[in-house]
Amino acid sequence: MSALAYTLAVFILATAVATALFRDVLSVIIVFGAYSLGMAILYTFLLAPDVAMTEAAIGAGVTTLLLLLTIARTTRPPSDQLVERVHVPAVVVVSAFVLVVCMTVLPEMYTLGDPSAPVWSNPDVTQHYIENTYEDTKIHNAVSAVLAAYRGFDTFGEAVVVFAAGVSTLLVLKREVFA
Question: Suppose 55 and one of 40, 50, 63, 90 were both cysteines; which one would form an S-S bond, judging by CB atoms 3.0 to 4.6 Å apart?
Fold first, then answer.
């Protein structure tokens, strides 16, 4: 793994821990948005642009917007009514566990373009999709064929999530404009 991947992993873990530790809701929402952007960058780095765009749009964009609108429409209780305790030992234990798992798994991952990676070590699978995509799907573009035909249910699910998030956001924004 490259230094960029390790930096992204540290950033994502730091924002996840900060989200759990911060007491101010606005700070948590901002850090959570940064976490989602970090995940989107990581997905892009791992060559999953469709997942990265969905994470950026839904995780960092729509979710952050809806949470901020929720804060704007609600009142905050006085500080003496807020729960001031954070279970720091539990957060530390869970964070340490996640850190150990990540540091154990990350070195075992294949680097991008590694010829010994499983996807490259079995060229028959890749060659099968390249040769048979048009006959199976009647779609000329191999990437579109995989997304629309071979992964059709997954792609449909992603489209439903993005559509539902967009409609929900428009409904909330419409209420905000006319309220």
Answer: 40
Domain edges within the chain: 1-79+86-113, 122-179
**C-alpha–C-alpha distance, residues 8 and 156, integer Å:** 29
Q: What is the mean pLDDT of residues 24-52?
A: 86
DSSP state of 82: S
Angle at the Cα of 60 (from 55 to 61), degrees rounded to 5?
105
- CA 72 from centre of chain: 25
Q: What is the pLDDT of residues 84-98, one digit of tens each?
A: 455 667 767 877 887
Structure tokens at 142: 């191999």
In this predicted model, what pLDDT tens digit does every residue of 111-148 receive, in sequence order? Answer: 766 777 766 666 777 788 788 888 888 888 877 887 77
Task: Check residue 178 and give its pLDDT.
Answer: 53
Rounded to the nearest angstrom, the gap between the alpha carbon of residue 68 and the centroid of all alpha carbons in its chain is 19
Instruction: Give the residue ranges of DSSP H helices in the chain.
Output: 3-21, 25-45, 49-54, 63-73, 88-105, 118-121, 123-137, 142-145, 152-178
Q: What is the DSSP string of 9-22?
A: HHHHHHHHHHHHH-
User: Are 37 and 56 a contacting pair, CB within 8 Å?
Assistant: yes
Single-letter amino acid, residue 3: A
